[in-house]
Each structure stands twice: as C-alpha cells, then as structure tokens.
Design brief:
single chain; mainly alpha; two-stranded antiparallel sheet; two-stranded antiparallel ribbon; 59% helix
C-alpha cells in the first residue's frame, strides 16, 4: 500500500506547496520538450517564447474557472477560496480550452498558424499532465473508489468522502492517468516526426487521452457533475467526436 507524505515542505524560512511545485515542474519539462521539437511544426524558438504567456495564463485561468464553475455551491459560500489554486482544483479540460483560446488570439495577432501551435502543444501537454498529476498525490485528491490492491493509496480521514469514511486505501486514479499520459507523450513524440497535416496531432492527442480519461473518471470519487453526468466523461465524448472531425474533414481544419 502507498502512503502519502506531507503536502508542504519547508526550505529555510520558505514554505513550499508541493502541488504548486509539481505544476511548475510540469510547465518547465513540457516547455523544454516543445523547445526541442518546435522546428517540426515550422515554429521558431522566438515565436515559441512569445507564445508562452498566451498559453499559460489563459490555460491556468480556464482550468480554475472550469473547476470553480462546477463547484459553485461551495465557492459561492467561500469566495476567498476561488483564487487559491495551490490548494488543488485545476481541471485539465478547462486548461486545454483556455490555452487553445490564448494560442488562437496569439496566432491571429502575429499572423501565424494556430493549428501548428496547437499541434506542438498537443504533443507536450501529456508530459505536463503526467508530472502535474503528482500534485494530486500530495494534495490527496483525484483518487478512486476503495481498493485492496497492493498499490492502493492511503487517504487521510479528512479527505475521504463521507460514504467512504471507514475505508483507508483507494485507487490511485492520479497515478493511472500519469502513467497513461507518459505513454501518450511517447507516442505523440514519435508521430510528430511524420509531418501530418495541420491539426492532426491535436486530434491524435484527444483520441489517445479522452478514452482513458473517460474510464479513469468512472473510478473517481471526486468527479465534477452536471446533473447526474460526470462532466469529464461528457467532455471526453465531445472531444473524441471533435477529433474525428479534424481527421476526416481536414480541409476545414488547415486554416490559420
């Protein structure tokens, strides 16, 4: 069974939130990967540097807004917590939507190909996800239903849903997704050498990630809901349909 270390560490007088540290490492690692392969997508390193804030800031805002919107009953009563992203609560689909919107605005302003930037981002995002998911580990969130499997993860009583208060070990859903995302990154990195039409790598990312997320989400005990539907499962299905549209109707998706 897996036990969890503290969520914060102290470096001299400075407290370090491990969730935030993992997010920072995720950004640095994925940015370095993008720096190495930007040429495959006709993107210069200068253009890549210029796009960074256009991707990160809308991405972080989108990830937080998405999470807060589907937990509004709680945040309406605790408005001071809305901006406290370091405590957890960053939704990947919101981040993807926000980041894509930021890249679209950037590309339009610079007269560059939005789809090339989106394709490059799609290749390295799974690496960021794989690393960032370990922030969930330190925050004791994004775990699944109780399990007796050897790799079950211990969850402290204060983090357990009321209906599972008597259980100690749970599926490490964050770990399942982290490992899958590493595989997705490896596959996309190899495919990126082939020179597919613009938009194709973004589609492949969705087709590789969304089905796994749909399945893993079914295990989780902290899903966001829209009525009786798990939001991430619904968005995964929409994403798969959109990805197939990109692949099978490519003339519609090659414009800047």
């Amino acid at each position: 069974m897996i036990f969890i270390p503290p969520s914060d560490i102290q470096i001299g007088p400075l407290p370090v939130h491990l969730y935030g540290l993992m997010v920072a490492l995720a950004v640095l690692a994925s940015w370095y990967a993008a720096f190495r392969i930007a040429g495959r997508f006709g993107i210069s390193r200068k253009e890549l540097d210029q796009s960074l804030l256009w991707l990160l800031i809308p991405g972080f805002i989108g990830a937080r807004i998405y999470f807060v919107a589907f937990q509004w009953d709680y945040f309406a009563a605790h408005p001071g917590q809305i901006a406290a992203f370091w405590s957890g609560g960053m939704a990947i689909y919101g981040g993807l939507l926000g980041g894509a919107l930021g890249l679209l605005v950037f590309a339009r302003r610079k007269g560059l190909s939005f789809w090339n930037f989106l394709d490059l981002t799609a290749v390295v995002v799974p690496l960021a996800q794989a690393i960032g998911r370990w922030g969930n580990y330190f925050n004791q969130e994004a775990f699944g239903v109780p399990t007796n499997l050897p790799w079950g993860i211990f969850i402290a009583p204060r983090f357990r849903p009321a209906e599972y208060a008597d259980f100690q070990f749970f599926h490490p859903a964050f770990l399942y997704e982290s490992l899958w995302n590493l595989l997705v990154f490896a596959v996309l990195l190899k495919l990126s050498k082939k020179g597919y039409p613009a938009g194709r790598m973004a589609a492949y990312y969705i087709l590789l990630y969304a089905p796994a997320r749909f399945l893993i989400e079914g295990l989780r005990v902290d899903s966001l809901y829209l009525g009786s539907l798990r939001v991430s499962q619904l968005v995964s299905l929409i994403g798969i349909a959109a990805a197939l549209g990109i692949i099978y109707r490519p003339p519609l998706w090659r414009k800047k």
